[in-house]
Design goal:
The chain has twelve helices and 16 strands. The chain is an alpha+beta fold. Strand 9 and strand 10 form a beta hairpin. It is elongated. The longest helix has 82 residues.
């Protein structure tokens, strides 16, 4: 068996490298430098990681290979290897809505989702996704790739706390990018009003994952989590109170550009301190490039959400090489992201928002960096151009923000612009939750009426009992008086008879 696994791992590794050598990485726009070096190193040396892909698909080689390739593609696009506490929304890590604490009875770490602290639509969803990836990556490092259990603490949660998009994203990570990483899905104290929603969630899981779902309450939690690991609010003995503790970093991490000051992390580049839109504007150097507008305005064009950047070489004697980078390469497709501009040439760059991302979350969280430098001739080779960019210490830089140009479109206000499954599904889900919300309101009204009826019934019963007692007391007195009168009558009659008999004698 061990020999078979070893051969399968070697075959998977060889299959990956063959495709990489034959075809190169997908989407050259994002993968100019190939897959991330850390992921390639894991493929080359970490048999356990490759084994997880095989186990995830029950040693189906083709499916394991497809997942491995897609995982490396996804990890490069979202920058999974570079996500850390310094470049995610720190306040989301510190609010206690999700954190890791304790273990289940199998010794697997618990990743806890405190449902009552999460409200759909309140936080930036992209930043939530990055925080979840941060925790998954951290748990991968802390457990050395061992499994974890998701613990949904649903005590005191209601419909406003249920976020189907968030739940689907979590499930998608386990299904597609973190092989054989899930031990249990433990759902604690789920309100009855959410039962229908979890039937939908179950449909998103593969059949073999359904038995991993465990519904528990305070009395049954001990079957999966030891009482000493269970928090007191779950009926356990542990009085732990959440405080976010940063991951212990190595010296190598500290050398990878984790600097102070406000930073913007652009893909394929080091962290850059926030500056004015153009570095050259505060110096005596000649400005080479005009970039318009100052903020990329995204609008709907057919089925796509796009923005346009206008680049113009404002020199009359220099050829410029330009590059465009973004803080969120997983969100955007830039066409083209690099190229040459002849003297006085103007070029339109299209930025397309990828399916699955909402334009409403772009205003304050995403940035673009446009860089340029002069080159000697238009025939420069790609290798020479790459070397030139690596060797030049300073370039002209323009930083752009994003804004939503669709927000004034009344037609689009009434529907979700972008979802992973299309607007139609969202409308069905929204309608479903609208009905659920209506049912919950009816339930609360009925519950209040029932409580009122209970009090009225209690008052009526007390009144009836009181009347009965008064009636009994009155009857008792009447009967006593009647008996006393009867007794007196009898005595009087007997006295009269005695008197009559005495006179007769």
């Amino acid at each position: 068996m061990m020999e078979t696994q070893t051969k399968a791992i070697a075959e998977l590794r060889e299959k990956f490298h063959k495709k990489l050598n034959d075809e190169g990485p997908p989407d050259p726009m994002f993968f100019a430098e190939g897959f991330h070096s850390a992921d390639i190193a894991r493929i080359n040396s970490n048999d356990d990681w490759l084994k997880r892909f095989l186990e995830h698909h029950e040693f189906n080689m083709q499916e394991a290979f497809n997942m491995l390739w897609e995982t490396c593609t996804w990890r490069r696009k979202i920058g999974a290897n570079d996500i850390n506490e310094d470049n995610v929304k720190r306040e989301y890590l510190e609010d206690g809505s999700c954190f890791s604490f304790g273990k289940d009875k199998d010794g697997k770490k618990l990743f806890i989702i405190k449902s009552k602290l999460h409200f759909k639509g309140v936080k930036d969803f992209t930043e939530i996704q990055r925080c979840i990836v941060y925790w998954f990556e951290r748990l991968e490092r802390e457990t050395n790739g061992n499994q974890i259990s998701i613990f949904f603490d649903m005590a005191e949660a209601g419909l406003s706390n249920l976020d189907m998009e968030f739940t689907k994203y979590l499930i998608g990570l386990f299904k597609s990018y973190y092989p054989n990483f899930l031990n249990y899905i433990i759902i604690f104290d789920m309100p009855w009003v959410l039962n229908a929603a979890f039937k939908i969630i179950k449909s998103w899981l593969p059949a073999k994952a359904i038995p991993k779902i465990k519904f528990v309450n305070k009395s049954t939690l001990k079957e999966f989590v030891d009482s000493n690991d269970a928090l007191k609010c779950w009926g356990g003995n542990n009085d732990y109170t959440f405080v976010f503790v940063p991951e212990v970093q190595t010296n190598e991490d500290a050398l990878n550009g984790k600097l102070d000051n406000k930073k913007v992390h652009f893909a394929e580049g080091s962290p850059l301190t926030e500056q004015s839109p153009c570095n050259f504007g505060e110096t005596d150097e000649e400005q080479l490039l005009s970039v318009e507008p100052d903020a990329i305005i995204f609008n709907k064009d057919g089925k796509e959400i796009i923005g346009v950047i206008i680049l113009k070489n404002i020199t009359t004697d220099k050829i410029l090489s330009y590059k465009i980078k973004t803080t969120s390469p997983e969100k955007f497709r830039v066409r083209p992201s690099s190229g040459l501009l002849q003297p006085s040439e103007q070029k339109s760059i299209t930025v397309v928002l990828q399916p699955g991302y909402d334009v409403r979350g772009l205003l304050h969280n995403d940035r673009f960096l446009v860089m340029c430098l002069p080159v000697k001739n238009a025939d420069i080779t790609a290798q020479d151009l790459h070397t030139l960019w690596k060797s030049v210490k300073s370039t002209e830089q323009h930083k752009l923000k994003c804004c939503d140009g669709t927000e004034n479109n009344e037609t689009q206000k009434s529907q979700s612009i972008l979802t992973s499954n299309g607007a139609g599904n969202d409308r069905h889900i929204d309608a479903f939750f609208s009905k659920m919300d209506h049912l919950e309101n009816i339930y609360h009204k009925l519950h209040n009426k029932i409580q009122t009826l209970k009090y009225m019934f209690l008052i009526c019963m007390l009144t009836i009992i009181l009347i009965a007692l008064v009636t009994l007391y009155t009857l008792k007195n009447d009967i006593k008086e009647s008996i006393d009168r009867l007794h007196d009558d009898i005595k009087e009659t007997m006295y009269q008879q005695e008197c009559h008999m005495g006179r007769g004698i």
